[in-house]
Amino acid sequence: MTILTMAIADALAIAILCTLYLVRHRNREMMISYAVINAGIFTVSVALVSAGSNASAMGMGLFGVLSIIRLRSTALSQREVGYYFVALSVGMIAGINISPAYIAFILMAALVALIAILDARSTPAVKGQAQTVTADRAISDEEELKAYLGARLGYAITSVKVTELDLVNDLTRATITYQPKETTEGGTPAAVEAAAPQVTATRQPAATQPVAPTAEAYATLDTRMMPLQRTPVAK
Q: Rg of the chain over CA atoms, in angstroms?
């Protein structure tokens, strides 16, 4: 079995694995990690086999490569660890030149099919965009957190996965999957446009025109301001 044939089989298997993960979890960063770690394991395995290393030397070399999984900055869920293990195993099987070759093909297909079936039963496929957020409250219930983040962000959140719960600082870190807002022709989100108050043009009443005083009003005014006349009283 040539290295080129096994490389094509490995590329096909990891492409199916990454596509499954992207469709179901919408996380491009992890998809890139799976592809890179698979390529690295395949390359190291082929190099060790080509160098004529014995079983113990090959085992030590692969152990050193596998230990890099601990050098990560973020915590991984059990499901992501499962995808990691399948990506590593597929690269290793393709690189160590198993004979007869059909055994390697069967093993790689079995691993990819296993993770596809188990992940489909545990998590349905989600649609939308994925993002990691930090809430200013410690909420352990996922449904409550979904409602809280939906009200704060204004998104239609389809799934929430809590990654860290900080009771000391009252914080919750989670990975959410949400539906992006629909935008109108002017670029304004439809939800914001619908929530905007409707302004109705009303006709302002005309300014009150000053009324000129009438002659009767002047007469009344003059009468009130006339000086009082004294009437002499006979002694």
A: 39
Listed residues 97, 122, 147: the one ending a domain: 122
β-strand pairing of 129-135 with 171-179: antiparallel
Task: Order across the sheet with 171-179: list the strands.
Answer: 129-135, 171-179, 156-166
pTM listed for this prediction: 0.56
Looking at the structure, tell me whether residues 102 and 139 fall in a common domain.
no
Compute CA distances 68 → 23, 38, 71, 121, 232, whole Å: 26, 13, 5, 30, 126
Whether 21 and 88 map to the same domain: the answer is: yes
Same domain, 116 and 141: no
Spatial contact of 13 and 112, defined as CB atoms under 8 Å apart: yes
**Torsion, Cα of 123, 128, 129, 132 (10° steps):** -50
- Number of structural domains found in the chain: 2
Chain segment 184-232, per-residue pLDDT in tens: 444 444 444 444 434 333 344 444 555 555 555 444 444 444 555 555 5
Within a domain: 208: no
Alpha-carbon distance of 39 to 37, in angstroms, equals: 5
Look up residue 78 and give its two tokens.
């059990």
Q: Which residue range forms the structural domain that includes residue 57?
A: 3-122
Q: How many Å separate Cα 157 from the centre of its chain?
A: 9
Structure tokens at 53: 């290393």
Q: How many CB atoms lie within 10 A of CB 232?
A: 5
Q: What is the largest distance, in Å, between two alpha-carbon atoms of the chain?
A: 155
